[in-house]
Amino acid sequence: MGDPRKLRKKFKRPLVPFEKARIDAELKYLGEYGLRNKREFWKHRFQLSKFRRIARDLKTMPENQQKISFEELTTKLQSLGLVGTEATTDDVLSLSVENILDRRLQTVVFKKGLARSIYQARQLVAHKHISVRNKVISSPSYLVKAGEEDQLGFHNYSPFSAGKEKIFGQKPVLTKDDRKEPKPRTRSRKKTTRPTKSTRSTKKTSSKK
Asked: pLDDT per residue over 66-93, tens digit each?
């Protein structure tokens, strides 16, 4: 058995289960960012609530502890590319769920033009075609750091590493011979012979015998 660890909550369910405005907003995020289910959206919303809770608690801390905890929070958010170097507590409190969803590996792969759609980007990540710093990451919800965007691409062992033509397809280059107008197709109809009077009479005589 492994070492015992404390299981912590990764998401928090909404208090009101059936709320039309909230359900419509969640479904919009699911379709825009290609999320698998609402739990993925709840996880990122729970991450945002943690950052905002720490920023609110900073105002009640003493000055010495406030500086240390604020530097820890800003360095983490700066590495994720969520805030700038001269960020304040108001900048942390003004973060939204879209800012975190834009840092997901799935959305970064789609925005870099490595996939046709947001759903194909998820497929490429899940099938281990994408690597970050020469390390394969198969989790679409991985938050890409600011310094990792330039080192993101197809893995060397992936068949798509040869070029984007395997995903988007390569347009054929037509020559002068290929540009000739195709000949019209002619349908060949089978000739049907109708029975004549002589054939009818022979059939009747054979049936009488």
From this structure: 889 999 999 999 999 999 888 888 999 9
Instruction: Indicate whether 115 belongs to any domain.
Output: yes
Which residue, chain included where needed, has tokens 């994408």?
Answer: 130
Residue 122 CB burial class (10 angstroms; 0-12, 13-18, ≥19): buried
Is-contact 19 25, C-beta < 8 A? no
Which tens digits make up the pLDDT trace of 125-182?
999 999 999 899 999 999 999 989 999 999 888 888 776 565 666 655 656 565 556 6
> What residue numbers bound the domain in which 163 lies?
104-169
Q: Residue 21 in 3-state DSSP?
A: helix
Q: What is the dihedral of CA 114, 78, 35, 15, to 10 degrees?
A: -170
User: How many domains, in total, are found in the chain?
Assistant: 2
